[in-house]
Structure prediction request, 146 residues.
Amino acid sequence: MNERVPKGCTLKAHFKEISLSTRKRLDLVDITEQVQSFVDECKIESGICLINSPHSTTAIIVNENESGLKEDILRKVQEEFFQGTDWQHDRVDNNAVAHLGSTFLGHSRMFPIRKGRLERGPWQNIFFLELDGPRSRRVLLEVIGV
Ligand code: ZN
Prediction:
């Protein structure tokens, strides 16, 4: 018996797929508004929102949408995951650094939902991070709650 769900409440689950296109090998796409409006549509009082990228060369990250900081993030990613180190996977399809970035930065993030709102800080924007673009990509949203 799940005692976290109050009596008389039914746990609800909502799913949405977002499609997007990236423009460069390394790119940041702010998806905050799409996530926020989906959570608003779901009318969940209390729950969680999972933001998941079903790709092995992308990541979901959270931070401020400020143009200088976005450049800094992309520069840091490039510094941490740099090409030309004789990565084994480059023998397959020459994108080892993109897989490494995805591995260590993570393919998903989760936020709480309280009183029907996505509970995030004022400078916490949600970004899709492309590591092997440009490409067409998907982001999967799952909202679960009461
Ligand atoms: Zn690969």
Remarks:
- The mean pLDDT is 95.
